[in-house]
Amino acid sequence: MPGESLPPPRAGFVVSKAVGGAVVRTAVKRRLRHLVRDRLALLPPGSLVVVRALPGSGDADHAQLARDLDAALERLLGGGAR
């Protein structure tokens, strides 16, 4: 309807114990939050994205997480991301 605007895109994170101990999981979640924050503008308004960290995420460096996230967003958006 006219005058109504959609909320901004949001992201949630799932980092299970398979990723590592509490310290590792927290670090992965923090890195993913930082990476997603820079990419939220790529998502349509009203979007809700859940990022699930796979077990190897605990050993991945920042650059690898960024590449994996970009690849996932590209698949999600049909090739329109970065």
Structure overview:
- With 82 residues, this protein is α+β, with helices and mostly antiparallel strands.
- 40% of the residues lie in helices and 15% in strands.
- The protein is built from two helices and two strands; from the N terminus they run βαβα.
- A two-stranded parallel ribbon has the order 1-2.
- Helix 1 links the parallel strand 1 and strand 2 (48-53).
- Helix 1 crosses helix 2.
- The radius of gyration is 14 Å and the shape is elongated.
Distance between the termini: 31 Å
Poorly predicted tracts of residues: none
What is the mean predicted local confidence, pLDDT?
91
Kindly state the number of beta strands. 2
Summarize the amount of helix as a percent range.
40-55%
Strand order, largest beta sheet: 1-2
- The rounded Rg comes to 14 Å
Q: Please identify the structural class as seen in this structure.
A: alpha+beta
Question: How do the helices and strands follow one another from N- to C-terminus?
Answer: EHEH
Overall shape:
elongated
Percentage of residues in DSSP E strands: 5-15%
**Major sheet summary line:** 2 strands, parallel
**Count of helical segments?**
2
Essential attributes:
82 residues; alpha+beta; two-stranded parallel ribbon; 2 helices; 2 strands
Short overview:
With 82 residues, the chain is an alpha+beta fold. It contains 2 helices and 2 strands.
What is the fold's blueprint, element by element?
Layout: E1 10-15, H1 22-39, E2 48-53, H2 62-76
Parallel strand pairs: 1-2
Helix pairs in contact: 1-2
